[in-house]
Design a protein that fits this description.
With 225 residues, the chain is an alpha+beta fold. It is built from six helices and five strands. It is elongated and about 85 Å long.
Length: 225
């Protein structure tokens, strides 16, 4: 009669072989999954870069003519920034009243932005945020309120101009756009660590691209109820 020990020894090679096979299959699965994730991530990055270039090409001539640039947001890879300095979007001191030059700028810029973002680039755009910034003079709360009022003034005037000049893009642009104020929270400093008040007073147009997930959802056919 065989002892329990003999039976265990007899079955151990088979058991060990099954365990080794399962371990090998698990490793293969992990490697394939890692390769899939890497490829998917690489494709998403490539597509994102392509969409950024599409926006840059569409806006290039307009921005060069106005002396502006389109920059990547270091805090968000999906966001592109158009920084409009105080000299182009000027307000009355301590107020949210647009100057004559600011109105002229909006009359030229906003219809173009609406036509592009709500036209050939619509499927790539998630939102547009108009963000107001002040310098370091004055109370924090007052500056925050002032920057909010100024960004809203830009948005309202911009929508008025778009409705008059690009009426077909008005509804779309209104849905895409929001306004917010940052006050003195994001001041710009010179090399000697002093606040550059002229550069700190600015309005930023933040163009956010759709993520891979958003684009995939948008491309799915609507379900029939």
């Amino acid at each position: 009669m065989s002892s329990p020990t003999d039976q265990d020894n007899a079955s151990s090679p088979t058991t060990g072989g099954v365990i080794d096979l399962m371990t090998s299959l698990a490793m293969i699965f992990i490697l394939l999954f890692a390769a899939f994730i890497t490829q998917t991530s690489s494709e998403a990055q490539s597509q994102l870069q392509e969409h950024k270039e599409n926006v840059q090409v569409a806006l290039r001539d307009h921005l060069e003519r106005l002396g502006l640039s389109l920059d990547s947001d270091p805090k968000d890879p999906l966001t592109l920034l158009i920084i409009v300095p105080d000299k182009k979007l000027t307000f009355e001191f301590g107020q949210s009243i647009l100057s004559h030059d600011a109105v002229q700028f909006l009359q030229e810029a906003m219809p173009f932005y609406a036509a592009v973002l709500c036209g050939p680039l619509r499927d790539k755009i998630d939102s547009l945020a108009i963000q107001g910034h002040t310098d370091d003079r004055g109370d924090d709360v007052i500056n925050l309120k002032l920057s909010q009022e100024r960004s809203l003034a830009v948005m309202v005037k911009g929508l008025e101009v778009i409705e008059a000049q690009e009426p077909l893009a008005f509804q779309c642009f209104q849905e895409l756009t929001s306004a917010s104020g940052r006050g003195r929270q994001d001041l710009i400093y010179d090399g000697d660590h002093r606040v550059n008040r002229e550069k700190s007073r600015r309005v930023i147009f933040k163009i956010r691209l759709r993520s891979t997930e958003q684009r995939a959802t948008a491309e799915q056919p609507a379900k029939i109820l």
